Amino acid sequence: MSHAIALHGGAGTIAPELLTPELEKAYLHGLDLAISAGNKILLANGSATEAVAAAVIELENYPLFNAGKGAVFNHVGKHEMDAAIMQGVDLMAGTVAGVKNIKNPILLAQAVMTQSAHVMMAGDGAEAFAKSVGIEFADDDYFYTEQRYKQWLDLKDSSNYQLDHSANPGNKMGTVGAVALDSFGNIAAATSTGGMTNKQFGRIGDSPVIGAGTYANNHTCAISCTGHGELFLRAVVAYDISCLMEYKGLSLKEACNIVVMDKLVKIGGEGGLVAIDAKGNIEMPFNSEGMYRASINMAGEKTFGIYR
Ligand code: ASP
Description:
This protein has helices at residues 21-43, 48-61, 105-115, 123-132, 140-143, 146-155, 229-234, 237-248, 252-266; strands at 4-12, 81-87, 92-99, 120-122, 176-181, 187-193, 214-216, 222-227, 271-276, 282-283, 290-296, 302-307. With 308 residues, it is of the alpha+beta class. The longest helix has 23 residues, at 21-43.
């Protein structure tokens, strides 16, 4: 095979005793749908960009993950979502922040990349752009899930916000994301999230910020992050890994280890990421208790993981 793909469905306090066998099965099913959707595109000689978008769409549509349907509630009881996509062949990127009622935010990010002269759009403006290019909207009910609502009820009268996967032990799911290498040797990354429960004041996390939660460059790596966005922003995680490879000549594995297991840990940045380089090496490091993840490597071997 000349292609490979990896994805995540969020990192956090995910331990075996916190998931029922049924829930575990349901998560693995969601991961399988997504990795299969991305891999199908790569097998048909589609691009890495198309593959990561297809994988993320599946995860957005799957209610257990905190993106698209199943996104967390913000302080005023709405779903405000962030997403980003980037391709390593030409450093083209598109991102959206704080968008509401967009059925698949990753498709809007992709439209920003391919159908506008811009990289990042936010809020009302991004939604007006979505209308102008025919992106599908969904009403509030579509995004509702009972477990997200319960999470929010616990917090809504406070000014606290919460990483989706660090409270309510049974319901640990966060951001989703994917990275891929296609048969043309190009890599890409995509990330999509509902952010953090009870977030307010238009809070934006790392996911839609190029270089923080999402990055791709054929010369180094493609990365999609999940975790406490504030810390990932301050550590400029994705670009830091790329820089360690570009300027210090480190391997993907070495660069990921330094950033996730040392630099992030030192500032209290809980989370993880999926990463790929142009040779098809895959890394899925995390410093939290668990991270929903799946991959298909260059040898065609499929793996799934949830716990450490
Ligand atoms: N990184 C995301 C954010 O801070 C949250 C997550 O990964 O669960 O918005």
